[in-house]
Specification:
The protein is globular. The protein is of the alpha/beta class. It has five domains: about 5-200, P-loop containing nucleotide triphosphate hydrolases (Rossmann fold), CATH 3.40.50.300; about 210-390, P-loop containing nucleotide triphosphate hydrolases (Rossmann fold); about 405-475 and about 490-510, Arc Repressor Mutant, subunit A; about 535-605, Orthogonal Bundle (DNA polymerase, domain 1); about 625-725, ATP-dependent DNA helicase RecQ (Arc Repressor Mutant, subunit A, Orthogonal Bundle), CATH 1.10.10. The strands form four sheets. The chain has a seven-stranded parallel sheet, with helices on both faces. Strands 8-13-12-9-11-10 form a six-stranded parallel sheet, sandwiched between helices. The longest helix is centred in the last third of the chain and has 21 residues, at about 585-605. The chain contains 34 helices and 17 strands. Strand 5 (about 135-140), helix 8 (about 160-170) and strand 6 (about 175-180) form a beta-alpha-beta unit.
Length: about 725
């Protein structure tokens, strides 16, 4: 029997498959021949088989070093499912008690166990090292090997201690496996593990069945996600969030909208996490909302979508998480919600870390930003990041290829960039190159005398976004390279030098625009609703508002502001409960003024046979934010507002933002005790009367009308008093 026949027979016997996938057979042969092996294989490519089958066919026990308890449990359960003997696979980690560990060791000594999964922390314990020295080890497998590299998306310092520890136990062949590694990360892994001579098996990173899309993240993100899940009813999906609180809040929103979802994050008890994971795998629920703690090694083939509520910290992390979609080769939608503010938050999290770590983190974020904002084929950008060229002009399976932006000729812009990089001798980052072209006299440019360069200021007519797009697309085209070891310095490639000698047409696709929405959460919305406004209904409601305002002798905006009417004329709320979900309308306002409005809307909908959108009303979780409760209770106790701000670490204007959000949504607050301390009655009365007679509550208009006699803070405080008394 040939070795190939022997391996295929073993594959069929142990796993029920007739053929190997991709490089699996070559990798398994290399491991069985006793060679060090490095495997770079995308999620869903069948990495586990590369060490599972050799372990079953080798004398002794293979030690599999794995980073997550959930991953180990999943792998061990799968191996036991394939075998008649439970002892065939075990794990040792912190979740086991002493009796369970003794049972594992007994099975190993008796020769029953072919695969032993250990966490790196368990590997380093003296008692375990002593035990492993007595075990016939067949080989070592390092799963999720990118954890070794500081440049990887999930760096774990304990992973860097693996080589010295296994040298203490016994030297045996080693196989390192990862789904995500740039050339830099790959080199780092091999160097740290001492396997520079290992045979490298690198599979293509292209997953043709995955669809990639980036959407602008706005206040309606929860609505958009509920709508998306309803449109994909019955399908399995994962939603990744960066913060545990976001996981909990979003899960509640999904649940009250009739979607079966469970949370998964490190703050939950181990048992709860395991139960939630199992319910997802067993399809008792369709959606898991998780931090990145979820999913490593989870072999669920039919995940149909992976949504990212927040932009990930790195493209490696993003690629691995999206790789959990469509592992069976079927549909897999990968959608990330992006806003620039999220990048700034992630940068803030890095403050206080060592400078080198901050520098690495910042570069990884820049790559993520490039992916999010580019209008070039997303597949091409991802594959380029992992060092793999993609030659197709249009992949036909990403948002940019399905809705391409217009291209413009940018030969001269590219020449300017390449000449600048050459002039500064490949020693600076993209930001510095752009500052030279735009003529910015930064301290760095002046100190290096780059303001004296011929190209200084020649590109000031183009904005920063355009220059960024030129550089990003020059990198993908191979005219520039980014030296990641040296903080992302731009270097001219041989191709770039050739281009300067013989320039040809260079078509630039301008980056996508992601307009920022600076409206603070839950303050009155200063823009239209999310859909097209029904002009007839809007006009009817404005007349109704005027009628009510005359009857109550208050300005119309006290009833409902224009943006609230626009949202009503877009979403057609026909019950008080639905009305409460309109921006600027809380329970108090809905109860006080809502009856007449919903009656008018209902009549309009019926008379005109208007079909309301299915996702008309996304139920929201009642906001019981600790901050709001604290503010309301403090004002009830007559605590000075500046003391409230100090206690919560807010500046005074931030506190006023919070208080405005509370009163505009219909809650009554009495701040007279504070006003009496800081303002005399006459000043209070004059501002109050202004709002009583004004047609608008706009702050800038008020400052202008009141002639500069009052501070902005005073005007805001009286506006809060006025809205609270007159509208609530």
């Amino acid at each position: 029997m040939t070795q190939q026949d022997y391996l295929i027979e073993a594959l069929k016997k142990h796993f029920g498959f007739d053929t190997f996938k991709g490089n699996q057979e070559a990798i398994i042969r290399n491991v069985l021949d006793g060679n060090d092996t490095f495997v770079l294989m995308p999620t869903g490519g069948g990495k586990s088989m590369c060490y599972q089958l050799p372990a079953l066919l080798s004398e002794g026990t293979a030690i599999i070093i794995s980073p997550l308890i959930a991953l180990m449990k999943n792998q061990v359960d799968a191996m036991r499912h394939f075998s008649e003997e439970d002892g065939i696979a075990h794990f040792i980690n912190s979740s086991l008690n002493r009796a369970a560990i003794d049972q594992v060791k007994s099975d190993i000594v008796e020769g029953k166990t072919k695969l032993l999964y250990v966490a790196p922390e368990s590997l380093t314990k003296d008692e375990n090292i002593e035990f492993f020295r007595q075990v016939p080890v067949s080989f070592y497998a390092i799963d999720e090997a990118h954890c070794i590299s500081e440049w990887g998306h999930d760096f774990r310092p304990e992973y860097r201690r693996i080589r010295p520890i296994i040298d203490k136990i016994v030297r045996r062949p080693l196989i390192a496996l990862t789904a995500t590694a740039t050339p830099k990360v790959q080199h780092d892994i091999q160097k740290n593990l001492g396997i520079m001579d290992a045979k490298v098996f690198k599979s293509s990173f292209n997953r043709p069945n995955l669809y990639y899309e980036v959407r602008h993240k706005n206040k309606d993100i929860d609505r958009e996600i509920v709508k998306f899940i309803r449109a994909n009813e019955g399908k399995s999906g994962i939603i990744y969030c960066l913060a545990r609180k976001t996981v909990e809040d979003l899960t509640k929103v999904l649940n009250i909208n009739g979607i079966s979802a469970l949370p998964y994050h490190a703050g939950l008890e181990q048992q709860v996490r395991s139960e939630n994971q199992d319910k997802f795998l067993m399809e008792q629920i369709n959606v898991i909302v998780a931090t990145i703690a979820f999913g490593m090694g989870i072999d669920k083939p039919d995940v149909r979508y992976v949504l990212h509520y927040d932009i990930p910290k790195s493209l490696e992390g993003y690629y691995q998480e999206t790789g959990r979609a469509g592992r069976d080769g079927g549909e897999g939608k990968c959608i990330v919600f992006y806003e620039y503010k999220d990048l700034l938050k992630l940068e803030k999290f890095m403050q206080g870390k060592p400078i080198s770590e901050q520098e690495i983190g910042k570069q990884l974020l820049e790559e993520t930003q490039s992916y999010a904002e580019t209008a070039v084929c997303r597949r091409k950008v991802l594959l380029h990041y992992f060092g793999e060229p993609y030659r197709e002009a249009n992949c036909g399976c990403c948002d940019n290829c399905l809705n391409p932006n217009k291209q413009v000729e940018a030969k001269e812009l590219l020449i300017s960039v390449l000449e600048t990089v050459e002039a500064i001798k490949d020693k600076f980052k993209a930001e510095h190159v752009i500052n030279i072209l735009r003529g910015k006299e930064t301290s760095e440019i002046v100190s290096y005398e780059h303001d004296a360069l011929e190209m200084f200021g020649t590109g000031k007519n183009e904005d920063e976004k355009t220059w960024n797009a030129v550089i990003r697309q020059a990198l993908i085209a191979g005219y520039l390279d980014k030296d990641i070891e040296n903080y992302g310095l731009l270097k001219l490639t041989p191709e770039g030098k050739k281009y300067l000698q013989n320039p040809v047409s260079f078509k630039l696709t301008k980056d996508n625009e992601f307009e920022e929405d600076d409206t603070p959460d839950e303050t009155p919305v200063r823009g239209g609703g999310s859909c097209a406004v029904d002009p007839v209904l809007y006009s009817i409601m404005k007349d109704l508002r005027k009628k009510i305002s005359k009857r109550l002798n208050v300005p119309p905006y006290v009833i409902f502001q224009d943006p609230s009417l626009e949202a009503m004329a877009s979403n057609y709320p026909i019950t008080l409960e639905e009305l409460q979900n309109i921006p600027g309308v809380g329970a108090g306002k809905a109860k006080r003024y809502g009856e007449e409005f919903v009656a008018v809307i209902k009549r309009h909908v019926e008379e005109n046979e208007i079909e309301r959108p299915e996702d008309l009303r996304i139920r929201t979780v009642a906001n019981k934010s600790k901050m709001k409760v604290f503010i309301v209770q403090s004002i009830d106790r007559k605590v000075a507002l500046d003391d409230i701000a100090m206690t919560k670490g807010l500046d005074f204007n931030e506190l006023l933002d919070e208080i405005e959000a509370i009163v505009y949504s219909g809650t009554k607050l009495n701040i007279d005790y504070f006003l009496e301390e800081i303002m005399d009655d006459e000043r209070i009365e004059e501002i109050y009367n202004y709002f009583k007679e004004s047609e608008t509550d706009d702050l800038e208009t008020a400052i202008e009308e009141l002639g500069g006699d009052y501070t902005e803070e005073e005007i805001r405080l009286i506006r809060i008093k006025f809205i609270s008394e007159m509208a609530n």
